[in-house]
Amino acid sequence: MATLRSAKFRIGSLFALAIAAIAVAGCGSASSSKSSTAAAATQPAPSSSTTSSSSSSSSSASEGSAEMISTAKGSAGTYLTGDNGRAVYLWVADSGGKSACSGTCAKYWPPVATKGKPTAGSGVTASDLGTITRSDGSEQVTYHGHPLYYFLVDKSPGQTKGQGNNGFGAKWWLVAPSGNAITASASSSGGSSGGGYGGSSSSSSSSGGWG
Length: 211
What we know:
It is a single chain. The chain is built from 3 helices and 10 strands. The protein has 211 residues and is α+β, with helices and mostly antiparallel strands. The protein has a domain at 64-196. Strands 4, 6, 7 and 8 form a 4-stranded antiparallel β-sheet that branches. A 3-stranded mixed β-sheet has the order 2-1-5, with no helix packed on it. A hairpin with a 2-residue loop joins strand 7 and strand 8. The longest helix is centred in the first third of the chain and has 41 residues, at 2-42.
């Protein structure tokens, strides 16, 4: 009888130990789950800095692209234009592929700037395009070795008010696709006065090219 009671006591003890073990395991699992949940709750939300950085980089890359030089037709013939459609000019005072126009001159005759190698539009010879580095570090487009400029008074495509201007002591001419100066006066030049641009304009026509 004592042996039977002892056996029952051992079985009961083992059963109690099993129940206790299950309870401890359950508590441990619940504690682990709570810890994981708490850890997840304290984690910061996914940062958008990567996306923002990527967008910023893309935006920066799109700013200041390479200039495209194309052509347009007017009463003086076919001439070069910038990628905004405005006429571009060469200056007779430039020599050796270098720009002699700076300071006040460059305010009235802004250099055709580019970010990287300029590209050729319709009617333009790509191999004739190039760049020079100006004293301020900016790149200026050249064509057939001539630095190119806009004219401040030309506000929209089709205007060639700088044609034949004698501003700053030398002639400004439209540029033909061949790279030569177009020295015939353009009727759309509007008789531009050079008084505010360093000299006087000429309305006389002449033939030939410079270049």
